[in-house]
Protein: CD209 antigen-like protein C
Organism: Seriola dumerili
Amino acid sequence: MGQASENIYVNENEIRTLEPNRTGCVHSDAEYVTRSSCRAAAAFLGLLCILLVTGLITLVYLFTQGTSEWNKLHNNLTKELDQLQTSFNNLAEGQNQLQKRFEDMNKERKGFQRKIQDEGCYKCWRRFGSSYYYISTEKKAWDQSREECLKEGADLVIINSEEEQQFLIKLNKRVWIGLTDQDEENVWKWVDGTTPATSYWQSLQPDNAGNEDCVEIRNTDSETLLKWNDLPCSYENYWVCEAREKDMKDV
């Protein structure tokens, strides 16, 4: 009995001796788990930071690239806008020039209308084609006749077509025209310095009989267009002035 109690006591003491070791062992395991968890959390946070930094760098790069493309697009659009503005300015300037030209022509037209209507002058001027013609009611020498035309902003008539020749023939008058060889004998020129593209000389004309350096239209009974005849420039004749609207002087 006594031996048994002693054994039990020994065993109980051994158990008590062992218990602190077991408790210490448990504490060591918990501390290990805690440290492992901290390391894992730290590693996760580190990885997360790396990912965030990488993402931020990527966003900054993409933003920079996008800004560069946007600036390039903006510059191109600005350049195109400047070109369009320049084209618009050129068109506006052209329109202003056309408007000014139109106003000038309208002014010339009105001035000419006033002129041909003044004192019944509309009876003296006739329109044919793109020109106006003044048929004199008095006779003068060729040079004096031309001076009268120049006073009106016109000149002695220059014949450029068969239709114009027919128009003058139908006046049924002997009239001076703007053809002469006063500068050089036998070199016939219009008053603007050009030579006739087509001539309408009468038969055997020009004959220069007696220093005949100026030309008239001389109507005959024949139906031919050949009515030109040379005469001395001092001969007094009716005359025909020709003018375009832009050449007429304002009254």
Residues 126 and 133 are 5 Å apart (CA to CA).
